[in-house]
Amino acid sequence: TGGSGGREGPIAEIGAGFGSFLATKLGLSERVRRIMLAAGMGAGIGAIFRAPLAGALFAAEVLYREPEFESDVLIPAGISSVIAYCLFCIVFGWGSLFSSPDFIFNNPLELGPYTVLALVLTGAGYLYVKSFYGINRIFKLINIMPHVKPAIGGFLTGIIGFFLPQTLSFGYGYAQLAIQNQLPSTMLLCIAFGKILTTSFSIGSGGSGGVFGPSVVIGGALGGVVGRIFHSFMPNIVPEPGAYVVVGMAGFFASVSNAPISTIIFVSEMTGSYHLLLPSLLVCSLSYLFSGPWTIYIKQVKNKLESGAHRGDFFMDVLAAIKVQELLPYLRKVQPIPEDMPFEEFKHRIFTRSDQQYFPVVNRQNRLTGIFSINDVRSVLFNEEINSIVVMRDIANSDIIYTTPSEDLNQVLKKFTIKNLNRLPVVRDDDHTQLIGMLDRKEVIEYYNRRVEELKQQKGEKK
Asked: How many CB atoms within 10 Å of residue 442?
């Protein structure tokens, strides 16, 4: 219809939907279903843009605002993306999406203009995100039937398209002309900023479409303007303005998507131009760093630590990395109870004066033979008839749930939950009858929380 939107939006949802549907039908786990969902998304994007490697990387990278990859997704997404790409090309023909001259980077001085390009793309990216979600918020405030809103967005897009038809539809043809340096700078500027508006109206109003396709055109147009300007002043350093179109495509989307690595590969595969990887790496990295917190994908979480899918994994990883040995200074020293001590003596001499909840029982060699809690004492405490004949061996439980200094906190927490215990006896690794002290569940949780805070601070310092 002429609306400005990319093909990757619908095909990403379709591919992800098929992956999730297949996993559900096969009765696979929730984790595997998430992986197949991402693999389906990568396959759809890799095929539609003829960029299978980038599609796989994008599916693993776009999930987080920070430069992290969902490693579990990479191999499945790679396989599905290759198969989807081959099937797509068998039907629609082989080759790259754009035809690009063999641009070559061989002058380090050109990194200066490329740095300026990164700054321009970052500013335009900020405008793009603000325009997109500003218009989206306005349409959400309009109290009319949802299916009417895209019609209004389409009408506004049509008004812009009446004066600037180059901003309608995909716009890849104009991006191709920009690569070949066949469009004037004023036209490129009109395409870039007009495309920001038409995309915001087309998709922000509720229409269906992707933001990658328009981003490629916007970034390419801005790159063409910067390239032509520097070419006019320093033709010996910037001999090919078209190279800036290719690099601009990558840099602009990197600034709005927080996915710099896959974007570099995307544009290289889409144009068949691999000699510009170095300037693309510079521009994408700078654009990502300069873009700050804004992103066109507002549902991205910051990192795996804040991902609902990985919170349990992180919890288990941290616990497994902490040994009981580290908590030995926090162990509670308790009074062991001789196993042959009469209950009457225990009741009057120890029980009424102690705040212990658990009492380890030892033999004459001071070796641990059992343990009991205050709950175990209650069954005898109010029975005067047997008070005088019971010794502590009779009350103690010889099936002791204990831990050792070499065990990790993941194992310890499992033992705490077996019988809902609050404390565990810690015994020596080489002799499980030698008591070291009692480990409190509260101390374990507090130590874990301190370790998590330390990891967060270390992560922040690295940035």
From this structure: 11
For residues 139, 143, 148, 150, the Cα torsion angle rounded to the nearest 10 degrees is 10
Determine the pLDDT at residue 24.
87
Q: What span, in angstroms and rounded, lies between the C-alpha atoms of 33 and 24?
A: 7
Under 8 Å between Cβ of 100 and 242: yes
Please name which of 198, 200, 199 lies closest in space to residue 157, comparing C-alpha atoms: 198
CA–CA gap between residue 72 and residue 304 (Å, rounded): 12
CA 413 to chain centre: 27
**Residue 260 contacts residue 67 (beta carbons within 8 Å):** yes
Instruction: With both helix axes pointing from N to C terminus, report the angle between 30-48 and 71-92 in degrees, rounded to the nearest 10.
Output: 40
Question: Residue 117's pLDDT is what?
Answer: 93
- Are residues 347 and 381 in contact, defined by beta-carbon separation less than 8 angstroms? yes
Helix, strand, coil % (nearest 5) of the chain? Answer: 65, 10, 30
Amino acid at position 317, single letter: D
Contact 330, 405 (CB under 8 A): no
- Tokens 């993941």, residue located: 410
CATH 1.10.3080.10 fits 8-306, yes or no: yes
Spatial CA neighbour of 354 closest among 340, 373, 331: 373
pTM here is: 0.68
Continuous H helices in 142-259: 149-163, 172-179, 185-204, 212-233, 241-257
- CA 176 to mean position of chain CA atoms: 34
Reported as half-sphere exposure (CB side, CA atoms, 13 A), residue 428 has a value of 7
pLDDT in tens, 238-258: 888 888 998 898 889 888 888
The predicted-structure confidence for 354-381, as pLDDT tens digits, reads as follows 778 888 999 988 899 999 888 888 777 7
CB 336 within 8 A of CB 350: no
For residue 40, what are its two tokens?
A: 């389906």
Residue 453 CA: distances (Å) to CA of 276, 413, 442, 449: 41, 20, 17, 6
Distance CA 406, CA 428 (A): 9
- First-to-last alpha carbon distance for the chain, in angstroms, is 45
Helix (H, G, I), strand (E, B) or coil at 66: coil
Which overall architecture, per CATH, does domain 315-449 show? Answer: Roll (3.10)
Which structure tokens are listed for 167? 């901003």
Query: Which residues partner with 440 through β-bridges?
Result: 423
Q: Is 19 exposed, middle or buried (0-12, 13-18, 19+ CB in 10 A)?
A: buried
Which residue do the tokens 């335009």 mark? Answer: 124
* Residue ranges for the chain with pLDDT beneath 50: 462-463
Token match 């997404």: residue?
Answer: 77
* Spatial CA neighbour of 368 closest among 342, 403, 398: 398
